[in-house]
Every structure is written in C-alpha cells, then in structure tokens.
C-alpha cells in the first residue's frame, strides 16, 4: 500500500553518505556531530522569535507567539488553532526506553498552560470514535514515571483512528525503540499533517474533521521523522507518513518511508536545519524513485 499522490510532494533533498534501503535517506556528517547538531531541529527556529521595540503598535500586547513547551520527556510546539501540537520531539536511547514506569498510573489531563479557548479536554474525545493518540509515546519513557505521565498531557495528543493507533502506529513506535539497541541516540519528531484531496469538482481541498465542543482537529495523516545518531558519527534519517485510518499491520513499515522534503513541504517545517543544504560536501541521495 502506498500513500496517495497528494501526500507525495516533490522538493529538494539533503543527504550525504550512502545507507540506502527501501526509500531510506541518510547523512554522514563532515564537521558537526552530537546533540548540539541534532537537538533540537525545530526548537532553534522557535527560540529566534523576538519582540519588536516598545511602541504604540504593541502597547496592548501581541495576539500570539509560538507556544514552545518543554517537558521532562519531550519538547513540543503547540498550535492553538488545532488544539494540538505542530510537532513533538523526543530523544531516545537504551537507558530511556527501560525502567519501571507504568502507564497504569498515568491519566490523560488538560494542559493548563494553554488558554481555555485553545485547549483540548477529555470530554472532546468522549464518544468520538477516536483514540487519544500519543505523539511522544508513553512507552518511550519508562526511565521516569514523571516523564511517562507527561506524555498523557493532552497537548501531546491527537484524535487517532483506533485501528491505526493500536496496530501499525504502535508497531512504528516499537520499531523506534528497537533502534536504540544499535544506535547512540534516536531522535524522533512526530506531528500531524492535513493533506489536500481532489474533490468531485476537480479542485484540491484541505478538509479535516473536528471533534468535541473545542473543535479538536483530526489530522488526515501523521508523520514521524526518525534521526539516528550512530556510534561512528554517521547520521541516518528515516521519514515516515501514515494515513489516519485503519492500516494493515502486515504492510512493512518501509512502505511508509517518504523523502524528507515530502514532510517538510506538507508540514511547513524544516528538519535537521544544521545540515548545510548548499554544502558541496553533501550529496543528495533518494531511493525507490520517491
């Protein structure tokens, strides 16, 4: 099963080194390595927001700024229009995915740092037919009960089809945890997509459902960008898109690999921006004609 053409948007790819396999893209760093290079890929852009000098224009305040929220287990950028995150970023390794934390002691709670106008509640999900789907997975943070509990804050949650959340998406999360066995660090950035479809009139539209009295957005798709930091200094990137609908768990996860520019164009985000895209030392590599 392949994603619909509307999900596959062409663009400029950035990569160096060779580590191909079923649509895989990889990078080998020449100079910059380590956590400063990898983390955070998008937080850096959010932190550059600066206020204009005091003047009559801003005397009553600004209507909004990027809502960056830092948890023990993850970092996220909240989109108040959607009642959910634009992206959620995690850093996984062998130690973080092990421990005694138990999700049975965790509860879904509202994010009280979000204004009530822009906040999802548990009541919004009740009777909707959707699961409260984690973007930062609870099982990724067994190292700390607090870290696990924080993944249940509703600012880390989107409505997710149960037959995706509990099957193929769960398999992708398990796969990410398994990658910690052979990599120094596994950085996972997850978020929603709202992709256009052609309607009967031949025009393209972006349509998505909302649930509850707070109109929580139901994404049409989800992305997960997995950045592997290897022990030899190589960086490998694995970008996935899954539709928010039932997905057969027998379909190999590699079928959902897409070029990174597909997600960048669709989401309005840029990943691993510390890689110089124009550098002559980097060679773009894509596989499978994706």
From TrEMBL:
UniProt: Mg(2+) binding residues: 165
E.C. no: 3.1.30.-
Record key words, sorted: Disulfide bond, Endonuclease, Hydrolase, Magnesium, Metal-binding, Mitochondrion, Nuclease, Transit peptide
UniProt GO BP: apoptotic DNA fragmentation
An MF annotation (GO) of this entry: RNA endonuclease activity
Cofactors named for this entry: Mg(2+)
Record's subcellular location: Mitochondrion
Listed name of the protein: Endonuclease
Protein source organism: Engystomops pustulosus (Tungara frog)
Lineage, top ranks: Eukaryota, Metazoa, Chordata, Craniata, Vertebrata
């Amino acid at each position: 099963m392949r994603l619909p053409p509307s999900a596959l948007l062409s663009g400029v790819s950035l990569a160096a080194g060779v580590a191909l396999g079923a649509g895989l893209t990889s990078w080998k760093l020449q100079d910059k390595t380590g956590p400063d290079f990898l983390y955070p890929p998008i937080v850096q852009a959010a932190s550059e927001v600066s206020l204009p000098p005091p003047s009559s224009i801003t005397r009553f305040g600004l209507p909004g700024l990027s809502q960056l929220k830092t948890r023990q287990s993850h970092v996220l950028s909240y989109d108040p229009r959607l009642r959910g995150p634009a992206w959620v970023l995690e850093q996984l390794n062998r130690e973080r995915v092990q421990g005694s934390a138990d999700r049975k002691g965790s509860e879904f709670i509202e994010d009280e740092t979000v204004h009530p106008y822009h906040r999802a509640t548990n009541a919004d999900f009740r009777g909707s037919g959707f699961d409260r789907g984690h973007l930062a997975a609870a099982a990724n943070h067994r190292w700390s009960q607090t870290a696990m509990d924080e993944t249940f804050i509703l600012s880390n949650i989107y409505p997710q089809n149960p037959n995706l959340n509990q099957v193929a998406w769960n398999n992708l999360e398990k796969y990410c945890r398994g990658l910690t066995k052979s990599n120094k660090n596994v950085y996972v950035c997850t978020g929603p997509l709202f992709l256009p479809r052609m309607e009967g009139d031949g025009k393209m539209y972006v349509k998505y459902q909302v649930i509850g009295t707070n109109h929580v957005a139901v994404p049409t798709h989800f992305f997960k960008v997995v950045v592997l930091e290897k022990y030899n200094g190589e960086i490998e990137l694995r970008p996935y898109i899954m539709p928010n609908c039932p997905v057969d768990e027998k379909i190999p996860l590699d079928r959902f690999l897409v070029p990174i520019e597909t997600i960048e164009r669709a989401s309005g985000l840029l990943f691993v921006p510390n890689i110089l895209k124009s550098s002559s030392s980097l060679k773009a590599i894509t596989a499978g004609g994706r």
